[in-house]
Specification:
It is built from eleven helices and 15 strands. By secondary structure, it is of the alpha/beta class. It has two domains: about 325 residues, P-loop containing nucleotide triphosphate hydrolases (Rossmann fold, 3-Layer(aba) Sandwich); about 70 residues, Immunoglobulin-like. Strands 3-4-2-5-1-6-7-8 form an eight-stranded mixed β-sheet, sandwiched between helices. A four-stranded antiparallel β-sheet has the order 9-10-15-14. It has a three-stranded antiparallel β-sheet with strand order 11-12-13. The two termini are about 45 Å apart.
């Protein structure tokens, strides 16, 4: 199964493009699920069929689902209340009722992650997910890794080995000890988060950017490319949406077309094997402006035909991308690598320079937007509005940071072995 996640700057038309991608795949014979998180049902308006938490089938082979974050939030909170009923009764807490609960910020992201996990176990060959705007989308996709890190810090797994000793330790230290139920709940959360993380990190999951060419669109793509690379997400295409005719006699349209052409030339000639900063975004697809809001299956099919929707077998009519490349399978960390360590290459330059170099791909990143902080055995990396905390490889835990440089879209961090920690003879 393949999963294609579409995102981009706000207002770029990503929901309509996601619907067009799903329609083309279904018409080409691929069993497709379209997931959308838009509260205003933009996908339903484009498809001509209202969507919601109950799946609908606007055409054979296409299922559309818009998860209800309120329902999931209520179910999760009421379940937590039932599990903690004894403690809440002891504290005299008044219970919540189903009809008084409204979703909190973050519930929509959790609903999307849950839907992606359920879709991965479903019968569909392709899942097309319409994500929020780039910054919010990356926050959602990074959520499982972040929450699992918090759980490991708050409730380390090694403490489970001392379960039988906790009552004794509690009496000796005169301090309350975590109850078994807390660890069991944390274990369930970790399994659910690990499932979501495995779907996001699966080699069959890729991200596609949708943007309108222009100065703001180019800046948004550059920033998005750095953020996606920082979180290890694979890109398989950049869709330039709403292109105006270049042959128009209208001076306003002519100026807009010229501005779009300048950005398109930069994307198409950016080097590497595709569009975007350093060739990191994959193939470049172009969608002409219809002159109206796309409405109905025929309009969506026309958009998909122009975009070359997914590069998928049986995805329907498509044009060849300007620079095609297959999504690359990410490297897997070596056995014994600490949890949370990305599979970034580590090279040994001790013979020549006395250092180890960690190579972190960050296409589109700019030196002024980068920040790097080491905290213990972890590294806090910031690229523009995006931040990720990663565990250092075991060898680098015995080193000190010796410097860093950004070259050709790659951050290279130098580590010098600490004589007090580095094994002798190595």
């Amino acid at each position: 199964m393949r999963t294609v996640l579409l995102t981009g700057p706000g207002g770029a038309g990503r929901t309509t493009v996601a619907a067009a991608t799903a329609v083309a795949a279904a018409r080409g014979g691929t069993a497709t699920l379209l997931l959308t998180t838009d509260a205003t049902d933009t996908a339903g308006a484009a498809l001509g069929t209202p969507t919601g938490p109950v799946p609908v089938t606007p055409l054979p082979g296409l299922t559309v689902l818009r998860p209800d974050p309120a329902a999931g939030f209520r179910a999760d909170l009421l379940a937590l209340q039932r599990h903690a009923s004894a403690t809440l009764d002891m504290l005299g807490t008044a219970p919540f009722h189903d009809d008084e609960l409204t979703p909190l910020p973050g519930s929509r992201e959790l609903a999307l992650l849950r839907a992606l996990c359920e879709a991965a176990a479903g019968p569909h060959e392709l899942v097309v997910a319409d994500l929020p705007a780039t910054t919010e989308a990356l926050g959602t996709l990074a959520l499982p890794e972040r929450l699992r890190r918090y759980l490991r810090r708050l409730l380390p797994q090694e403490r489970l080995a001392a379960r039988a000793l906790r009552p004794v330790l509690g009496r000796l230290a005169r301090l309350p000890m975590p109850a078994d139920g807390l660890y069991e709940a944390a274990g369930r959360w970790d399994v659910a988060l690990a499932t979501a993380q495995s779907v996001i990190e699966d080699p069959g999951t890729t991200v596609r950017l949708v943007a309108e060419p222009g100065e703001s669109g180019a800046e948004a793509v550059r920033t998005a490319a750095a953020g996606l690379a920082l979180h290890g997400l694979r890109m398989d295409g950049l869709i330039a949406n709403r292109l105006v005719p270049e042959s128009s006699a209208d001076p306003w349209l002519g100026g807009l077309a010229a501005a779009q052409r300048k950005t398109l030339d930069a994307w198409a000639g950016s080097g590497g094997d595709g569009a975007g900063p350093g060739g990191a975004c994959g193939p470049l697809y172009r969608i002409a402006h219809l002159g109206r809001e796309p409405r109905g299956l025929d309009d969506l099919a026309a958009l998909a035909a122009a975009a070359g929707p997914a590069g998928l077998p049986g995805a329907g009519p498509r044009t060849a991308p300007e620079r095609s490349s297959a999504p690359r399978t990410p490297e897997r960390p070596a056995p014994g690598t600490p949890a949370g360590t990305p599979p970034w290459p580590l090279t040994d330059h001790r013979a020549d320079e006395g250092v180890l170099v960690w190579h972190i791909p960050l296409p589109g990143a700019e030196r002024a937007e980068l920040d790097l902080v080491r905290r213990g055995d972890e590294l806090v990396l910031t690229a523009g509005p995006f931040r990720r905390v990663v565990a250092l490889p075991s060898a680098l835990c015995r080193c000190t940071v010796d410097g860093a440089a950004l070259r050709d879209g790659e951050l290279r961090i130098r580590f010098r072995p600490d004589p007090a920690l580095w094994p002798r003879g190595l």
